[in-house]
Amino acid sequence: MSKKENEALCHFRLNPKLFKKLEKSIRRRGFPSRSSYFNAVVRVTVGEDEGEIPLPPKVKEWIDKNKPPLTETEIKTHLEELIRNLLFPPLSLRGVDIAHETAWKDVRSRFREEHGMWLTESDIRTAIEEFASVHHGELTDYRNKVLEGEQL
Fold this sequence. Notes:
The chain is mainly α. It contains seven helices and no strands.
């Protein structure tokens, strides 16, 4: 399998005038292709070294200005806290599907209020599934106590 077969293929739409300007700018900056330019942009965006040819300072400034306020680890931690606080009872009593369906928008809105970032529905679903998996014993104990009528 060649290297290109292992790489993701990305498409987007762009106004024809902007495309021509971008194409010319990419070539004049020394990038051999659009792919190499966008790979550099992506590398800078995710915090890696941009490669052999530096990106224009304005592009770097824009990327730095628009970086998310939290790292992926921090997002995961805060999301887990929200799930524990908002979804623990429904998750333990009704399961992942019902908990997700009834409250993913609430989790998303609350996360946005607290951290200024939007999460996708699939991000939240994945986090709920992971939480349910990791905390299965705790969720089961809670469900059993509720079903036995214990005060919590």
